[in-house]
Amino acid sequence: MSIFIPEEILKAAEVSEDELKIDLALILYKKNKISSGQVRAWLGLTVLEFQHELAKRDLCLNYDVEELNQDVQTLKTLGLL
Predict the structure, then answer these.
(1) Which residues contact 61 (CB under 8 A, 6 or more apart)?
(2) Domain presence at residue 1
(3) DSSP assigned state of 79
(4) Is the N or C terminus of the chain more exposed, i.e. has fewer CB atoms within 10 Å?
(5) Residue 15 CB partners (closer than 8 Å, separation 6+)
(6) What is the residue range of 29's domain?
(7) Is residue 2 assigned to a domain?
(8) Is-above-0.90 flag for pTM?
């Protein structure tokens, strides 16, 4: 699927095509429509680059109490806690 965005829209918004692509991916991520892994794969970012893009926009990782509990259990299973 391709989306055409007129050049005048990009100019009016003062964003490049690449910046718009990152913004769209992060909007979908924040709405829990796609995962961080999907964002990174789509944009070709490392984990640190992805986190940097979130920080630049004052966004946080989607991480809830259930995920924290799962991570704690995994660390216990591995003997790291």
Answers:
(1) 36, 51, 54
(2) no
(3) T
(4) N
(5) 23
(6) 7-77
(7) no
(8) no
